[in-house]
Amino acid sequence: MIDNDVLNLREMGIHHSPVEQALMILSKAYPDMTWEQLEALSIGERDARLLAVREQTFGTTLNIFTTCPKCRQALELSLSTVNLRSPPPAEAKDSGHKFSMRIDDVKVRYRLPDSTDLEAISACMDLDQARKLLLDRCVLEIHDIEGKSHQPITKYEEIYSPDFVTALARQMAEQDPQAEVILNLKCAECENEWQALFDIASFFWTELETHAKRVLSEIYILARTYHWREQDILALTPARRKWYLEIATA
Fold it and tell me: What digits encode the pLDDT tens for the residues 37-71?
């Protein structure tokens, strides 16, 4: 994406939800796809595409800032996007995101979560309500060993046991591994080790916002100094813009 795309994205998406912001990025990078098609991507597929767009925009190195939960030491680490990729298993490619599996004495047919599901559960008041809603949306059919259908919503307490939820979540993670990227972290100060979830959608949007603010600052300085129009400043190559900025701020 060029700087003008970044500025437009930030302006359009600033008051939208994180899910919508992620889809806005993809709609700019994949203009041949409709909004409905982007929404229907599994979370892993969505994040894999976001990772690719991030590489094209800012490169393959990600600088991550965090804090040790034990000693509160501020930490900075660099990661490569290559190491964050988790290709789905071969059988998942032609599945249409729909799968079946057996859990104890029931057979479950389900689909992988997508952006519409994330948007739906974002309004939930607590984790249990969000989990129940996600199951109700993604579990398509449940049959017992005799073939009798159960309705997931009415049978939530009976069928969606902790073991059921754990088994289904594990299977979903295997079929859509890019949906959950876990970082193994270690504090250089106290040697504490912990894990953290990495969300490319929020990380990339934060980067875009930071970059947009920097570009706007550069436009302001150059416009004030040389009385150029915004579109003319954005038309400059990054190297040439940098040269003019150095002269203007010398």
Answer: 999 999 999 999 999 999 999 999 999 999 999 99
Contacts of 183 (CB under 8 A, 6+ apart): 64, 79, 195, 196, 197, 198
Residue 112's φ and ψ, nearest 5 degrees, are -75, 145
The verdict on 8 and 77 lying in the same domain is yes
- The reported pLDDT for the residue numbered 27 is 96
CB 69 within 8 A of CB 76: no
**Of 136, 112, 114, which is closest to residue 124 (Cα–Cα)?**
136
Residue 91 CA, chain-centre distance (Å), reads 23
- Per-residue pLDDT tens for 232-241? 999 999 899 9
Mean pLDDT of the chain: 90
Instruction: Give tens-digit pLDDT for 107-146.
Output: 889 999 999 999 999 989 899 899 889 998 999 888 776 6
State the residue range of the domain holding 130: 90-175
Q: Give the ranges where the chain is alpha helix by DSSP (H).
A: 3-13, 18-29, 35-39, 43-58, 115-121, 127-138, 156-159, 162-175, 200-226, 230-235, 238-248
Contacts of residue 122, defined as CB under 8 A and 6 or more positions apart, other chains included, come to: 17, 19
Q: Please report whether residue 15 resides in a domain.
A: yes
Q: Are 236 and 228 in contact (CB under 8 A)?
A: no
Residue 87 has a pLDDT of: 85
